[in-house]
Amino acid sequence: MIDHTLLKPESTAADVVNLVEEAKGLGVLAVCVSPNMLPLQNTGDLVVATVCGFPSGAHQPEVKAAEAAQAARNGAAEVDMVVNLALVKTGQWDAVEADIRGVVDAAAGALVKVIIESAALTDEEIVHACGRAEAAGAHFVKTSTGFHPAGGASAHAVALMRQTVGDRLGVKASGGIRTPEAAAEMIAAGASRLGLSGSAAVLAGF
């Protein structure tokens, strides 16, 4: 269930090599790295994931689509994209959906997770954003980038996202999940994937 994640801007290629080796030892599902680190080498059975329009989401749709296409060419099997929060906050839902669909179409079959930055949204906005992600063909909705000042994942948001998408989409909880208790709370709320930078400590707690 875990995307073992390293998205700090100052992370080096050596850091990513270490991340991959740690991920193999932990038995996690995937590694998630910045797009400039692709392609990855010696990943074994690990799924390779990257981010798109990260972390603000305030990119032109064409730029997000091009970034997703390049990521797929560079070996990403999964792409975690950030919605345009300004469009969400102003209720421009057709534009939100079009932005997501552009990435889905460009990702060339890669699984697309849509980061809605749930801590910055109202419940109504969370529901609408998840609905538009599903309509656009996304495969997952995801709580957070981990970089927004409003905060990261909450069990309330995860539960609301799961309620909205049912069993049709995955729900990824990410951002600030640092303890086994927090991880268990997210899973109980409906998360089917966890984005963790401190995977070893969380797993050790279990």
TrEMBL record:
It catalyses: 2-deoxy-D-ribose 5-phosphate = D-glyceraldehyde 3-phosphate + acetaldehyde. InterPro entries: Aldolase_TIM, DeoC, DeoC/FbaB/LacD_aldolase, DeoC_typeI. Its EC number is 4.1.2.4. It is an enzyme of class 4 (lyase). Keywords: Cytoplasm, Lyase, Schiff base. The active site is at 80 (proton donor/acceptor), 142 (schiff-base intermediate with acetaldehyde), 172 (proton donor/acceptor). Transmembrane segments: none annotated. Pathway: Carbohydrate degradation; 2-deoxy-D-ribose 1-phosphate degradation; D-glyceraldehyde 3-phosphate and acetaldehyde from 2-deoxy-alpha-D-ribose 1-phosphate: step 2/2. SUPFAM superfamilies: Aldolase. Catalyzes a reversible aldol reaction between acetaldehyde and D-glyceraldehyde 3-phosphate to generate 2-deoxy-D-ribose 5-phosphate. Belongs to the DeoC/FbaB aldolase family. DeoC type 1 subfamily. This is Deoxyribose-phosphate aldolase. It comes from Brevibacterium samyangense. The gene is deoC.
